[in-house]
């Protein structure tokens, strides 16, 4: 065990150094997302390239492990922890009202992507693989499922870096990706049941397969409802600990528990982690939890993407290169058309539909899970597993720059969204002589709210906006130019005006103190005179002598 822990420490050290440097290079020098650099770093130092080179008597640093996963279970476990952490923070950064508002649209987008991608993936397998002669062939079914999966992790990382995670397109992509992964896992259970029976020459037991699928769906829906309802009450109780650090740690512990339960229910762990983050996102401490959890993510998330890059076996890709390229073209079309076309009918313009389509392109952890199960069960061979790895590779490399470039330009949603947390908001507007004065009062007001126990987080959008929240009290602060706006619900308007008035009084006192000051050259003389007078006072004798001197 000591040797295995030593190897793990060395491997993590190499991964972190190379992934961070590569991520910095891709971000700063090439203008690409960090995730792309982290994936490439994993490919280079992994067990199929530099990691396989023996280091004297020590041996290779990343020896290829036999089985579906070419890295050690310890390293893969830490990578899995990184993926759970990534999806937890993605859920925390997602605006829940916007998510719920676009969940119906995301369902349309997700279902469209699943249907088109599945039939294109399975159909291409039948047309170009002589060994497959039917859509019901196990290999065709598995490759159809692999083409439906979406890697939330890659897209979420890019959306978070570009501050688009709570945009209409961002929440639609994330919600649709969660739905895709849920459907993919459910389809996987169905296909495994069909394939196992078919290989054994028996009859498909649709009842038992349907039970597994229904259990997964019910677990997903139940966790969403319970999490959204219980999270505010839970955080209210945890505040009694009077430590935001402990609160954040307990919240992540709950995310891990939900991730494990999600796996037990037949879903992927990342779905449970995202549900946990989404539930806590509506609490007033979401920003504080995010800040603390992100500090851990800076170390673990790059490990996840680097390990994903290590899965790429370049030698295995040679035998199925032509078929793999054809399959990948179909997989790209399936997502861009299957998700983009329905988006046009639910309120998005062409630009928004394209953003959603390319945002759904990445395949990662779920595609590998599906392919790994197919390989370990003997339903697909190493060549088809290579196609799955190739799909993950090409989509992971091509999608990040496509997503990044697609979000340049104007809005992709036809309607104009307000930053207000619902209807019935009263807006108090103040006009200042300069932007600097407006920003000064904004900071003064933010400090005043923070002293009252409120939590403040930035809202993404065209205007600079902040949500000020304490339990059920929610206000929206916006600044555009020299204008400052504070919005509150009707019953909270009086309190908002009181806080604003107190901040204005403090601001006025500060302005008056500035006006009382003299010219710069006089300020120095005045200061010296006061110092001289103070010294004179200190040197005066006390009692009658003092009175005589006066």
Concise structural overview:
The protein is α+β, with helices and mostly antiparallel strands. The chain has helices spanning 2-29, 34-45, 73-93, 96-128, 138-148, 152-161, 168-200, 206-238, 244-264, 269-280, 286-310, 314-318, 321-344, 350-359, 365-376, 382-406, 435-451, 493-515, 520-539, 544-549; strands at 425-431, 455-459, 464-470, 473-480, 483-489. The chain has a five-stranded antiparallel β-sheet.
Write up what this structure looks like.
The protein contains 20 helices and five strands. The chain folds into two domains: 80-406, Up-down Bundle (Na+/H+ antiporter like fold); 428-515, 2-Layer Sandwich (TATA-Binding Protein). The longest helix is centred in the N-terminal third of the chain and has 33 residues, at 96-128. It is of the alpha+beta class and 550 residues long. The protein starts with a helix and ends with a helix. 44% of the residues are buried. α7 packs across α14 (350-359), α13 packs across α14 and α17 (435-451) crosses α18.
Low-confidence stretches: 419-423, 542-550
Order of helices and strands: HHHHHHHHHHHHHHHHEHEEEEHHH
Overall shape: it is globular
CATH topology (fold) name of the largest domain: Na+/H+ antiporter like fold
Which CATH architecture of the largest domain is right? Up-down Bundle
Distance between the ends: 87 Å
Give the strand order, joined by hyphens, for the main sheet.
1-5-4-3-2
Portion in strands: 5-15%
- Rg from alpha-carbon coordinates: 29 Å
Structural class: alpha+beta
| Helix fraction by DSSP (H/I, runs of at least 4) | 55-70%
Number of domains: 2
Largest sheet: 5 strands, antiparallel
């Amino acid at each position: 065990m000591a040797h295995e822990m030593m190897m793990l420490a060395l491997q993590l050290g190499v991964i972190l150094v190379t992934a961070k440097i590569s991520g910095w290079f891709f971000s700063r020098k090439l203008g690409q997302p960090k995730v792309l650099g982290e994936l490439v770093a994993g490919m280079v130092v992994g067990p199929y390239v530099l990691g396989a080179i023996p280091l004297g008597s020590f041996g290779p640093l990343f020896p290829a492990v036999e089985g579906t996963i070419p890295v050690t279970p310890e390293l893969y476990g830490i990578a899995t922890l990184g993926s759970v952490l990534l999806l937890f923070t993605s859920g925390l950064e997602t605006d829940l009202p916007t998510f719920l508002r676009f969940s119906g649209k995301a369902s349309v987008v997700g279902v469209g992507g699943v249907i088109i991608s599945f039939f294109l993936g399975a159909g291409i397998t039948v047309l170009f693989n002589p060994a497959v002669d039917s859509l019901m062939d196990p290999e065709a079914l598995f490759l159809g499922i692999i083409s439906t999966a979406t890697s939330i992790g890659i897209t979420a990382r890019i959306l978070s870096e570009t501050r688009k995670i709570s945009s209409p397109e961002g929440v639609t992509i994330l919600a649709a990706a969660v739905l895709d992964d849920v459907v993919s896992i459910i389809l996987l259970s169905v296909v495994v049941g069909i394939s196992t029976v078919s290989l054994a020459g028996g009859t498909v037991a649709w009842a038992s397969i349907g039970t597994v699928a229904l259990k997964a769906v019910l677990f997903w829906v139940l966790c969403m409802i319970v999490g959204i309802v219980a999270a505010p009450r839970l955080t209210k109780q945890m505040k009694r600990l009077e430590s935001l650090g402990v609160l954040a740690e307990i919240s992540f512990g709950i995310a891990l528990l939900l991730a494990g339960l999600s796996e037990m229910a037949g879903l992927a762990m990342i779905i449970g982690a995202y549900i946990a983050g989404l539930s806590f996102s509506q609490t007033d401490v979401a920003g504080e939890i995010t800040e603390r959890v992100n500090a851990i993510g800076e170390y673990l998330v790059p490990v996840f993407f680097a390990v994903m890059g290590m899965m790429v076996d370049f030698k295995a890709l040679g035998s199925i290169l032509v078929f793999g390229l054809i399959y990948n073209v179909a997989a790209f079309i399936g997502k861009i058309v299957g998700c983009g076309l329905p988006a046009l009918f639910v309120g998005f313009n062409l630009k928004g539909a394209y953003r959603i389509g390319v945002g759904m392109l990445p395949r990662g952890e779920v595609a590998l899970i599906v392919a790994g199960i197919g390989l370990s069960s003997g339903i697909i061979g190493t060549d088809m597993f290579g196609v799955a790895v190739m799909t993950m590779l090409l989509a992971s490399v091509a999608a990040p720059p496509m997503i990044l470039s697609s979000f340049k330009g104007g809005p992709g949603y036809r309607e104009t969204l307000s930053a207000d947390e619902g209807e019935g908001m009263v807006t108090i507007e103040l006009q200042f002589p300069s932007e600097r004065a407006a920003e000064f009062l904004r900071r003064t007001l933010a400090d005043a709210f923070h002293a009252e126990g409120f939590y403040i987080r930035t809202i993404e959008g065209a205007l600079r906006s902040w949500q000020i929240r304490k339990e059920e009290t929610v206000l929206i602060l916006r600044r555009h130019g020299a204008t400052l706006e504070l919005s509150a619900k009707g019953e909270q308007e009086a309190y908002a005006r009181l806080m604003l008035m107190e901040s204005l009084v403090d601001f006025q006192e500060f302005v008056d103190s500035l006006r009382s000051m003299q010219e710069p050259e006089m300020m120095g003389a005045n200061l010296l005179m006061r110092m001289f007078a103070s010294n004179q006072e200190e040197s005066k004798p006390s009692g009658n002598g003092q009175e005589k001197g006066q």
